[in-house]
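Lab meeting minutes (informal)
Scribe: AK
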Amino acid sequence: MSTPETARRFVELMRDWLMSLPHDLKVLSEAASDENLDRPERELAAGAIIYVISPNDAVSADRQDFLSYCDDCLLLRLTLRQLAAAEGEDMDFFRSRFGDVFEPLAADLAVCEAAMGELYGWLAGKVDHLRKLTYKGKTIADYLDDDEASEMLYEDGLVFATEYPVDEEALADKLKKASTVLEFMQGRKDEEVRRGV
């Protein structure tokens, strides 16, 4: 059940995550390219990168609108939570390198779950499908095993970060209520249902 305090905290998180999305994408890039991590974790990270940088918005094709990046921010965090659950010294070391991202994850996602209700489950359900994504005609395996494809994905991530249109001033002005994000996500979910995705 969402309270006014939960809604306020959710808006704060979304603002923070929207501003840090290009940086957070680098964390996924590090995971995807880290050969010390297990293959499933690397595949998951690569799938999340593809999800974020792909122009896959069914509801709004306008990638200039910050709302079209909200599900990317959340899915990225849900992916990081799944990565963080992996065991082993190499993942422990990886988490320690990005403690500022991993340490608040559980508490922050609990806020999102309380604020979003069933929309949270809908988005969380996408994480398991990330390994099956394709991008520019290539599979996740291509991006992990082929140096040229890997370089292309990395460069596309850099282009995304360079052209990312969200700025703090616009967010402060336009993102004031949780309902702004939740109504957009509900529209996206409804569109996916209509399309049978």
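Next up, CB showed the second protein from the same session:
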Amino acid sequence: MTHLRRDRLCPLCDGIRLEPFHQDRVREYLRCGECGLVFVLPESFLSVEDEKAYYDLHQNDPADVAYRRFLSRLSVPLIQRLSPGASGLDFGSGPGPTLAQMLTESGFPTRNYDPIYAPDHQVWNHSYDFVAASEVVEHLQSPRAELERIWQILKPGGWLGIMTKRVWDLQAFTTWHYKNDPTHVIFFSEQTFVWLARHWSATLEIVGPDVVLLQKSSSSAPAPREQELKTS
């Protein structure tokens, strides 16, 4: 393990209580003692070109029944909590934006955003009743900034639905296939989502082993108007 620099901070909570967690032949993983996030250092990040090349190998077909069944682990509990006519955003929709299509088909109009495949920055000029993020947060190289940006565009009472596999313990992590994807650079634990809920004063619902729902307080300040939001 390399010696931890004194200026290292957790990329999610800015915590300084970092500890070596695991090291394989490719990467070193650190764990934050504040929020429980496990992450790799920026030196292990792929270039944008290499990252896209890896994503291009994915076969996400909106007509694939098995893929829809997989996404329903997030879409079904999210839909159960939405009011009729609610509209939202699929953050990290990927090359085959299936989740947005499923939600729209169920009566909840959903826009797509993906920094590579659907880089429509106008989506940040609107506010939403919900944001869905399926198998995307583990790719975030700047999770604090990206998650705060998502939270900002949620309306009071809105829902953020996240699907990502969670870290359990070191023993399970050492043989975990999920960490072997070179585009997966951060790994959430239940402790991480508890920290997020406290940070946002949000209600946390842990729906399953890889799905959580966070509801924004209905007393939160209204989301900024379109002209007040900055695009990036």
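CB comment: The beta strands are 18-23, 28-32, 38-40, 88-91, 110-113, 128-134, 154-163, 186-187, 203-208, 211-215.
No objections, moving on.
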